[in-house]
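forwarding from the other thread:

> can someone predict this with iron/sulfur cluster?

sure thing
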Amino acid sequence: MKVEGWSGERRSTRQIQVGGVAVGGGAPITVQSMTVTKTADVEGTLQQIYALAAAGCDIVRCTCNEPEAAVGLAQIVPRSPIPVIADIHHQYKMALAALEAGVHGLRLNPGNIRRPEHIKAVASECRDRAVPIRIGVNAGSLDPDLYERHGGATPEAMVESAQRELDYFAEVDFDLVKISVKASSVPLMVEAYRQLAEVTDHPLHLGVTEAGPPPAGLVKATAGIATLLMEGIGDTIRYSLTADPVEEARAGRQLLEALGLRERKNVDLIACPSCGRAEIDVIDVARRAMEAFGERQIPLQVAVMGCVVNGPGEAREADIGIAAGNKRGHLFVKGRNVAVVPEDEMVSSLVEWAEFIHEHGTDAAIARADTERAEREAARDRSQLLADKGDDANDASARIVEIGRRLDA
Ligand code: SF4
């Protein structure tokens, strides 16, 4: 993608394999999420993993906090459609149990497992099995001696925590590593990742931890992750939302698609913000369209526009769109009117045309349409609307007279 001010260049990193998924070294940026079920609940966890994979999740993490969870992982891993990482916080023995269960990766928190012999025991086992580890530094659970020496959870302290873990790994000749330095503060995590990117070429896993519920959580996570991605930093991402994890996966996927970093998989729905000229409830139609497309894999841009006066022109780059006019929906393909449908069929027609374009292409869609008739009807509705409302939907002329009256008073 060529955009002024953004070369699209990415920081060059080593590549590791998490199961069959490559991370770093020029591989597509991946989306991660974490199950919220008890890992011992094998069927419940697998159900969630399938839902996550359908929403665009490439790699999933499950907690391995007790022996029952490790037993669960042994049954989950072979049936999971995507690689499974075990999240380990305090007990290094749970890491060894998860490896025995066949997981594709581990996440260790260096602030919680601190004894060098434990860290090295896990790293040696991972080396022998060629299983990667994420060093998951978290500002909220930093090693107390680093916290004290740096006077708090600073970017420098977080980077040092990661480096110290890397040194232990090097002692046992293990380097299948990716790293995260997450914080709930966006400026702190951005700075920590920037500093980390200067001192290592290991792939980086981006995230704003404990971002909270949407929409504020989505904004926070996007602010941190997108800032770094636009600087070329980051190889895999996770939204940490207080919400159904499917929302995390969907958000991650959508962010990568919006930045042009992953190929579009689902519909990109654009809609006008509506204004006084709107002939329909744009918010409602856009919501119904979003629901109708759901997780359908139709990688097209679809527009919902409030009026035929400006809609087709403003959304002329969309693959397919609908604009409202005189209680009817005007369908347009790449800005060209192709059909006029009753208002209550707007959403179903949009889906039907999108499916047709996805299957047969834009030219076939235009060829099957009576474009002349559609354009004639669109022109008629346009002039009708202009006659009704004038080209002054904001009543500007009346406002200008009023402004003048007040200034003169
Ligand atoms: S002019 Fe029409 S397309 Fe533009 S915002 Fe208003 S209703 Fe939507």
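The chain has two domains: 16-258, 268-389. thats all i got for now
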